[in-house]
Design goal:
There is one protein chain. The protein is an alpha+beta fold. The chain contains four helices and ten strands. The longest helix has 16 residues. It is elongated, with a radius of gyration of 19 Å. The protein starts with a strand and ends in a 9-residue tail after the last helix.
Length: 154
């Protein structure tokens, strides 16, 4: 494991075997990711470090298994479809709950668990306890998404 310095005092992690190749390029920190700029046919583009590490093909995305977008070791990266990648996005910061897929239902006066599949919300249940709702979400996420599920840390 090697550390690659970025701008804004941030660092990315890469495998030792990728370090020399990656550090020949100039990387910066932007919106949670390590990126670099390059020009092609006179047009400026950006490349994410995780795509560079895996040489990801067009039309696919690279998923950070542990959720750390600066951990670009091959053991933490996998090539996935956009749909698969959306199965494990983080919870929204404006949620009433600290848990993914859980929110306070003002009408029921209970915690509600729900999950999205194919762009549609699926109701899991209503719960008196926020933690029970988070557990129910985790169970459904495992059932629907298997290894691609992003689970709540309980």
């Amino acid at each position: 494991m090697k550390i690659v310095p970025l701008t804004k005092g941030k660092y990315a992690i890469v495998d030792a075997e990728d370090f020399e190749r990656i550090t020949k390029l100039s990387w910066f920190f932007d919106r949670g990711y390590a990126r670099r700029r390059y020009q092609r046919v006179g047009v400026q583009h950006c490349m994410h470090m995780h795509r560079e590490v895996l040489n990801a093909p067009d039309g696919f995305e690279v998923d950070h298994i542990n959720g750390n977008t600066l951990d670009n070791r091959k053991s933490n990266l996998r090539i996935v479809t956009h749909q698969r990648n959306m199965h494990n996005v983080s919870s929204h910061g404006d949620s009433s709950s600290q848990y993914r897929g859980v929110f306070w239902n003002k009408q029921k006066l209970k915690w509600t668990a729900q999950i999205c599949l194919d762009g549609k919300r699926r109701h899991i249940g209503h719960f008196v306890n926020e933690l029970d709702a988070a557990r129910a979400y985790n169970q459904e996420a495992i059932r629907l998404f298997g290894q691609y599920a992003r689970l709540n840390q309980l």
